[in-house]
From TrEMBL:
GO terms for cellular component: fungal-type vacuole. One of its GO terms (biological process) is proteolysis. This is Carboxypeptidase. PROSITE patterns: CARBOXYPEPT_SER_SER (PS00131). It comes from the Eukaryota. Residues 1-19 form the signal peptide. Coiled coil: none annotated. The lineage of its organism: Eukaryota, Fungi, Dikarya, Basidiomycota, Agaricomycotina.
Amino acid sequence: MFVTAAATALLVGIPAALGGQVPALDGVWGAVSSNSSQRAIVATSTVPAVVTPGKLRVAENSGVCETTPGVYQASGYGDIASNESIWFWFFESRNGPDNAPLTIWLNGGPGSSSMIGLFQEHGPCRLTNDSSGVTYNDYSWNNVSNILYIDQPVGVGFSYGTLDIGTSQEAAADVWSFLQIFFADSRFSKYQEHDFAIWTESYGGHYGPTFAAYFLVQNAAIANGSISGLPINLKFLGVGDGLTDPLSQYPGYLEYAASNPYHPLVSTSDIQDSTTRWQESGGCKDQITACYDGGSDDTCSAAQSYCNSYILSPLAGNYDVYYVLSEDPDAYPPDPTPYLNNSTLMALIGAESDWSETNYDVYQNFADTGDWMRNSRPDLETVIDSGVRTIVFDGDADYILNFDGVEAMVKNLQTKFSNEFNQQQFTNWTVHGEPAGIYKNAGTFSYVRIFGAGHEVAAYEYGNLARGEAALQMFSQIMGNQSLFST
Ligand SMILES: *[C@@H]1O[C@H](CO)[C@@H](O)[C@H](O)[C@H]1NC(C)=O
Ligand SMILES: *[C@@H]1O[C@H](CO)[C@@H](O)[C@H](O)[C@H]1NC(C)=O
Ligand SMILES: *[C@@H]1O[C@H](CO)[C@@H](O)[C@H](O)[C@H]1NC(C)=O
Ligand SMILES: *[C@@H]1O[C@H](CO)[C@@H](O)[C@H](O)[C@H]1NC(C)=O
Ligand SMILES: *[C@@H]1O[C@H](CO)[C@@H](O)[C@H](O)[C@H]1NC(C)=O
Ligand SMILES: *[C@@H]1O[C@H](CO)[C@@H](O)[C@H](O)[C@H]1NC(C)=O
Ligand SMILES: *[C@@H]1O[C@H](CO)[C@@H](O)[C@H](O)[C@H]1NC(C)=O
Ligand SMILES: *[C@@H]1O[C@H](CO)[C@@H](O)[C@H](O)[C@H]1NC(C)=O
Ligand SMILES: *[C@@H]1O[C@H](CO)[C@@H](O)[C@H](O)[C@H]1NC(C)=O
């Protein structure tokens, strides 16, 4: 069994990049441990807590992070079972919360905490560079939406309990259960009829489409009486720097490492070696294809291991995989651990489990099923065609989910808007007249490549634009049910 002690031992081999969201083992990004034939069942709670299955446990207005007077916040757990507690942190919108939509934010991994998004990217506060504290964020996404940061699956971040999730589909069902509990709570039931959005990044290229499609199926099942529950009023989906369709994504590593807006990442002979690994018989392309073609968990898991060992990892060269303008490791964004793993702070916010950025047991459960290499593009197509306004975005300085691969995925989409999308050229996207990226809209679908941004798009600045300024304009436009436009 892959238990915590083994995971700790494996941490020694992790590449040094800080602020990591995509797990690595033995120096390989997204590696698969050879000793991973069983699913871990590990209770991560260190404090005996009174769990309340089917209910929330809530600490209100802790004063942590959001300091705007009168803006309500709440943090705590939704106990989806006696041994499964999902951590959430809710912030009311700073502006017009009674009319604002409700957004859930999910970071990736798999196994990484959504406190990354809250404290490094677009929460009401951001970590200082020395990780000792936080500062007010003027470009917080709760300027325009009520927002709910969720640590999932169970075991991730401050969440704790039995680890029994190894696929995006299973994760969707648990988050749906959590939301049922959230909306049943008298403090939050008023939000059930607000427009609902899922925003996510990184492994969220799987989570976002899978969760959205699952929520739509559940809504249909509620509507026809085959299950009981509260419908989720899903209207918007945002996927940043996401892993959605690996067969489209992996050639992107070859392209981006050779040529990107900044500098080549490795030598041409390294590119050539990995190109051979991609295209040779039985190589990465064939293995992903076998996974897509009804492949078993072992087939998909083997594809993940092969492609990440021979393509994703070596082609990063000496650069930070999340931000190629820096050599590895980039000290930015700052590590949340010193700030969050603090018993005084944890008592204020109602957290009962030590925080770490990534739970490697959860990661390993996903690696065992090969979920990484499965194709979430069909779910994304379903969601777009069902009328959910959707944006895919990507920072042009991110290698690990680079824009070459993401734009190939977008180009391969087969939706009612795809012809219109693919016939267009990109248009410059400006924020208050400042260049910020290039974009296309078609129907209720949009894509934007954001200049100067690494993997965690909202954490970066560009030109005369402040950190997170371009990301907030994107978020505001989409959440206002508008296509992207320049200002
Ligand atoms: C994997 O298992 C083998 C055989 O039990 C053991 O020798 C090796 O140390 C294990 N490796 C890891 C990374 O746990
Ligand atoms: C967690 O709860 C489920 C359902 O109640 C049960 O089947 C399972 O054995 C429990 N796991 C642990 C580790 O207690
Ligand atoms: C924090 O670090 C980033 C990246 O190195 C740097 O651009 C920024 O100026 C630093 N912020 C402060 C307040 O020093
Ligand atoms: C965010 O909302 C606050 C509160 O209304 C406001 O003071 C601030 O200017 C807003 N930020 C931006 C970038 O609009
Ligand atoms: C109800 O809707 C669900 C979800 O679309 C579907 O799977 C199920 O077959 C439907 N049941 C009936 C009785 O129509
Ligand atoms: C822990 O958090 C408390 C409350 O926010 C703070 O006063 C204290 O300085 C923190 N301790 C450390 C070591 O950062
Ligand atoms: C968090 O704090 C606990 C208790 O001080 C410590 O045992 C644990 O190693 C810390 N975790 C991390 C990731 O620093
Ligand atoms: C787009 O911006 C670039 C510089 O950022 C400029 O060279 C180009 O002319 C612009 N294109 C249009 C159509 O405005
Ligand atoms: C968003 O706009 C589209 C058309 O542009 C419309 O069909 C849809 O109902 C709107 N959604 C919301 C939540 O207002």
